[in-house]
Amino acid sequence: MKVRILKGTKQIGGCITEITSNKGTKIIIDFGEDLSNDNQKVKKENPQIDGLTVGKKKYDAVFITHSHSDHIGLINYILEDIPVYVETISKIIYILQSVFTSKDIRIKTKNMDFKKAIYINDDIKVTPYIVDHSAYNSAMFLIEADGKKVLHTGDFRSNGLKGKNLENTLKEIGHVDMIITEGTSLSRDDIDNETEEHLMQRGREVFQKYDQIFILQSSTNIDRLKGFYNLSKECKKTFIEDIFTSNLTIRLNDESVPNPFDYDDVYTWVISKYRKNKSLKFKRKYVYPFTERIKQKSYKDKKYCLMIKSSMLEAIQKLYNKNFITNACLIYSMWDGYKEKEEMQKFLEEVKKYGIKEIIDLHTSGHADRKTIRLLNSLKAKKVIPIHTTKPEELKEILDNVILVHEYDIIEV
Ligand SMILES: [Zn+2]
Ligand SMILES: [Zn+2]
Questions:
Q1: For position 361, what pLDDT does the model report?
Q2: 166 and 238 share a domain?
Q3: Residue 237 CB: number of other CB atoms within 10 A?
Q4: How confident is the model at residue 292, as a pLDDT?
Q5: 304 CA to middle of ligand 1, Å?
Q6: What CA dihedral angle connects 256, 261, 265 and 270, to 10 degrees?
Q7: Does 239 lie in the same domain as 114?
Q8: Partner residues linked to 383 by β-bridges
Q9: Whole-model pTM above 0.90?
């Protein structure tokens, strides 16, 4: 078996891994967008990879680790006759994200479920394992071929609600010959990630101080959503999701996720943009199921926790004009890097005009800290390749047998 990193040996996001068996079966793992615009090696509008997106088909399958756009964002460019495997719920999230952002979607993806192996040409076996990350239902892959084993970690961590499972999963996987691991956190200091539970302890003070809490977070970060729901309940605030989040939470098929259908105390905020500008087909499917859930009483006592997006400034202004914002703060609960985007900067500046007294950073990483990466040593791999990092050389301090590679280098497993 041979491995090539087609992209991502020295950048975070947009990593593409190619694995080829001795018989010549070829698979790709992840095909997403670059996170920063000045670093686009594979053009967003027209990603050209011979045999994958252009020319004659050379690849037998593509596997996607999770629903973040830097891992899945380019799959609609893949040649139609190449099957793309996406975990069942991650696929639902991907479709929903595409519909709400009016992006093209690749309709024909194949379902994949955790711990159910998929065989490609009876030659390469791929088994997905659920792993803790800031995107719901993220996977790491065990790839077996030619009597060898490779573990591709995807993005992972251990400080979330599923984090405790990591050691058991690694035990189950046992010895592997090669590990391809993310190293996002290698560019920062050696500090242990704050756990989601601890983050919410800090959040409690904020919930006690303010009456209206606006939350800016990624909707797919379900651990975080659960945390804020629990705090709302505890601090007697009405929990209100934006319409995208509600569409997502009702489709996860997971009753432990606060959603307006299974929870009497979860509401949906349907802002006028969705009632006016969208097609009837869109409204029937994604808007009308929630319209009866906009109850003025959710705002009337002026004690609420509201999930928002940076595109909702106008709607927030309307709430302010109706005097529903009196003692409010905004919790910024996402990666700091998004603040560099112009749209976000503008939003955070403008929103202060509408009664938001303070913007509070409350976030913990979705990526493995050094302590967590160190757990991979238990797999006793002979070769370890860092990807999804700007500091690959730092991995040598943590793991044995690290080799630094360039894009397109051929590495024998
Ligand atoms: Zn990523
Ligand atoms: Zn991710």
A1: 97
A2: no
A3: 24
A4: 63
A5: 32
A6: 120
A7: no
A8: 178
A9: yes
In angstroms, rounded to a whole number, what is the distance separating the alpha carbons of residues 237 and 255? Answer: 21
The HSE-up count of residue 169 (CA atoms within 13 Å, CB side) is 24
Q: Ligand 2 centroid vs 336 CA: distance in angstroms? A: 14
Both 30 and 96 in one domain: the answer is yes
Helix (H, G, I), strand (E, B) or coil at 302: coil
pLDDT digits (tens, 9 = 90+) for 210-237: 999 999 999 999 999 999 999 999 999 9
pLDDT digits (tens, 9 = 90+) for 109-136: 999 999 999 999 999 999 999 999 999 9
Distance between Cα 48 and ligand 2 center (Å)? 23
Residues with CB under 5 A from ligand 1 (ion): 13, 70, 155
Q: At how many degrees (to 10) do helices 88-100 and 243-251 cross?
A: 160
What total of structural domains would you count in the chain? 2
> Is residue 358 a contact partner of residue 351, using CB atoms and an 8 Å limit?
no
The pLDDT of residue 45 is 60
Query: Cβ of 351: how many Cβ atoms within 10 Å?
Result: 22
Among 214, 221, 259, 257, which Cα is nearest to 237's?
214
Task: Give dist(CA 298, CA 301) in Å, integer.
Answer: 7
CA distance 316 to 314: 5
Q: Considering every ligand atom shown, identify the ligand nearest to the alpha carbon of residue 135 and give its number.
A: 2
Pair (341, 293) in one structural domain? yes
20 DSSP β-pair partners: 2, 26
Which CATH number do you get for residue 389?
3.60.15.10
Distance between Cα 355 and ligand 1 center (Å):
35
| Residue 176: alpha-carbon gap to chain centroid | 26
Same domain, 177 and 298: no
- Do the beta carbons of residue 21 and residue 123 sit within 8 Å? yes
Cross-strand pairs, 241:
268
**Spatial contact of 111 and 136, defined as CB atoms under 8 Å apart:** no
Residues of the domain holding 146: 2-189+366-412
In this structure, which amino acid lies at residue 147?
G
Under 8 Å CB-to-CB from 174, ≥6 apart: which residues?
379
Q: Are 378 and 356 part of one and the same domain?
A: no
